[in-house]
């Protein structure tokens, strides 16, 4: 049996599964399909369970709304039921602090980087600012660079 590939996926990627009017949605949906089909495992810090619903909520508030209230509710419910493997522990949270200084990134972003470093799995992001700061890392993957089957 082949070993399952895995990625650390950040909220900028996962939000595109529901906000399909954004750049690189096709690539994000390909990652999602690989996850659903059992071809790839997706890992994230627990905070993704707050960040993605927040992005969906904001999309319902825009003028005009990108999603209706009901579409937002459904998207949040679907996201929370996906069963992503998430991590929340004080070591991971503490490991992020020096990374904020090293890469000059937000603490929330550094927690994703810390998880990638801990697990050895690539961090897939669609956050251009974060990617520019961490692109020298061997574990940093730009969503747009992923091959789509």
Commentary on this structure:
- With 149 residues, this protein is an alpha/beta fold.
- Helix content is 51%, strand content 13%.
- It has seven helices and five strands, in the order βααβααβααβαβ.
- The chain has a five-stranded parallel sheet, sandwiched between helices.
- Helix 3 runs antiparallel to helix 4 and helix 5 crosses helix 6.
- The chain starts with a strand and ends in a 7-residue tail after the last strand.
CATH fold naming: Rossmann fold
Main beta sheet: 5 strands, parallel
CATH architecture: 3-Layer(aba) Sandwich
Tally of structural domains: 1
- Gross geometry: globular
Task: Find the count of extended strands (DSSP E, 2+ residues).
Answer: 5
Mean pLDDT: 94
Structural class: alpha/beta
Read across the widest sheet, the strand sequence of neighbours is 3-2-1-4-5
Output the CATH homologous superfamily. 5'-nuclease
Distance between the termini: 21 Å
CATH class annotation: Alpha Beta
Q: How much is the radius of gyration in Å?
A: 15 Å
Low-pLDDT ranges: none
The H-and-E topology, N to C, reads as EHHEHHEHHEHE
């Amino acid at each position: 049996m082949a070993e399952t590939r895995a990625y650390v996926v950040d909220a900028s990627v996962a939000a595109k599964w529901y906000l399909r009017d954004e750049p690189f949605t096709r690539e994000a949906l390909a990652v999602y399909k690989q996850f659903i089909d059992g071809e790839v495992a997706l890992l994230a810090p627990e905070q993704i369970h707050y960040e993605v619903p927040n992005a969906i909520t904001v999309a319902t508030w825009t003028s005009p709304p990108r999603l209706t209230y009901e579409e937002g509710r459904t998207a949040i419910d679907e996201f929370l039921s996906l069963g992503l493997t998430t991590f929340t522990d004080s070591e991971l949270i503490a490991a992020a602090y020096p990374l904020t200084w090293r890469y000059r990134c937000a603490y929330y972003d550094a927690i994703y980087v810390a998880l990638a470093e801990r697990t050895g799995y690539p961090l897939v992001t669609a956050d251009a600012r974060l990617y520019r700061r961490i692109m020298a890392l061997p574990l940093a993957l730009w969503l747009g660079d992923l091959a789509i089957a």
